[in-house]
Amino acid sequence: MPGKRARRHFSQLNEFERGLIIGIKTACWSTRRVAGRVDRSECAVRNCWEQWTQEGTQARKTGSGATRKTTGREDRRIVRQALVDSTVTRLTIRAAVGVAFVPQTISRHLAEANFKSKRPFHALPLTPGHRQLRLQWYQTRSMWNVTDWQKVVFSDESWFFGDR
After folding, report:
1. Sign of the torsion formed by the C-alpha atoms of 11, 15, 21 and 22
2. What is the 3-state secondary structure (H, E, C) of 67-119?
3. According to the model, what pLDDT value does residue 61 have?
4. Judging by beta carbons within 10 Å of its beta carbon (0-12, 13-18, 19+), is residue 111 exposed, middle or buried?
5. What's the number of CA atoms in the CB half-sphere (13 Å) around residue 122?
6. What is the pLDDT of residue 54?
7. What share of the chain is helix, strand, coil (3-state, %, to 5)?
8. Do residues 28 and 34 touch, judged by C-beta distance below 8 A?
9. How far apart are CA 164 and CA 32, in angstroms?
10. pLDDT grade, residue 119 (50/70/90)?
């Protein structure tokens, strides 16, 4: 598959492939021949061999990547804010930490700390007033028998009482 081969050329060399390239190159194979053998580009083979001859190491260099926008201390504050209040928003956390960065940074830090987003409630939690009303409702109907309950029509949220 030509498409698969082209994509493979852009992926990183793993440790085994680096060792294979160095081993074959020490046997005096040409760069083109080694590249065909390990199914990598000649440039990748050349770079790997040059690193081995100049630095004496085959380890992959750490990527430059983007610079971090937050310090370790700020990362801990982000996580602590989410621990203290689970309903806090990313913008509130950003304001509390006091550093200007994008909200995706907060999401990434929370994901690294193994925080998962919570599903919203299907219904609001009961307040003490709601609990009192439910208890009162139960107590008034606790002595009902089957014939009394057969006069009640249950329909989703609404209750309709028959002749009583």
Report:
1. positive
2. CCCCCHHHHHHHHHHHHHCCCCCHHHHHHHHCCCCCHHHHHHHHHHCCCCCCC
3. 66
4. exposed
5. 0
6. 85
7. 55, 5, 40
8. no
9. 95
10. low
